[in-house]
Amino acid sequence: MSENGREFGQGILSIVTNHIYALALINVYFILCNSLFIMVFLLLIPSFSNMAIYFLALIPSGPAITAMFSTVSKLVREKEIVPTKDFFKSYKNDFVSSMKVWLPLLTVLFILAVDVYYFNANYSSMSQVLAGVFLIALLLISTFSFYVFYIHAQFHFRVRDVYRLAVYYSFMKVKATTGNIAIAIIAFFLMSVLSDFILLFIASLICYVVVLNSQTVRKDVKAQFVEQSQAS
């Protein structure tokens, strides 16, 4: 940024403008990295028979989600970032580890989504109850995935340790977890009343709110698991 930019950057208006600009650009890159899924979504009619194709099209999304969490987390910490450089640096460096983190999550989310779709298509009372149960499970796993990507994007832990920490903080940080559940409910509500497609266009905004809501988790991970390991 130029010297004039830095001078003007002292104001709240400039900070807000920088955040909006960065989030918009991050969202564009997130959409670009999910071009395969968007193409499948536009070409295929949403139906039970096409769900396996949706699953395959979502496989490349893991590194994009990590890059988004990494860039947005840096924006929250440092206030100013270089969105293009930061996003694609994380996308490239964390590609393999992100796939290892993402594929188990995607598989579980896919199975739950299939169950919701299947039972929701049957009108018996038991089927509707089961559809509700699987929908709640889908919501909770989605919330759990927030922690998984939030931790994975900022720390270098083994995949199994990322999952352990995500489970740990899901129960230990009740306030943050409740906030993330509320964010997931709002996202599901918007998808149900508008379109599933809306999620792609507000992804960086949702990520930003999750990161703001989960900052106590980052401080705790640093204090309990990073600084102690460096000291030992």
Which outline best applies? globular
Q: Enumerate how many helices there are, as a single number.
A: 13
Mean of the pLDDT scores?
88
Q: Strand-and-helix sequence, N→C?
A: HHHHHHHHHHHHH
Strand content: under 5%
Q: Determine the structural class based on helices, strands and strand pairing.
A: mainly alpha
Instruction: Give the biggest sheet.
Output: none
Strand element count: 0
What is the rounded distance between the termini?
40 Å
Proportion of residues in helical segments: over 70%
Low-confidence stretches: none
Output the radius of gyration.
19 Å
Concise account of the structure shown:
This protein is mainly α and 232 residues long. It is built from 13 helices and no strands. It has helices at 3-8, 12-33, 35-43, 51-58, 61-78, 83-93, 95-120, 125-152, 159-172, 174-193, 198-201, 203-213, 215-231.
Folded structure, characterized:
Helix content is 84%, strand content 0%. It has 232 residues and is mostly helical. The longest helix has 28 residues, at 125-152. The N and C termini lie far apart (40 Å). The relative contact order is 0.11.
Secondary structure layout plus pairing:
Elements: H1 3-8, H2 12-33, H3 35-43, H4 51-58, H5 61-78, H6 83-93, H7 95-120, H8 125-152, H9 159-172, H10 174-193, H11 198-201, H12 203-213, H13 215-231
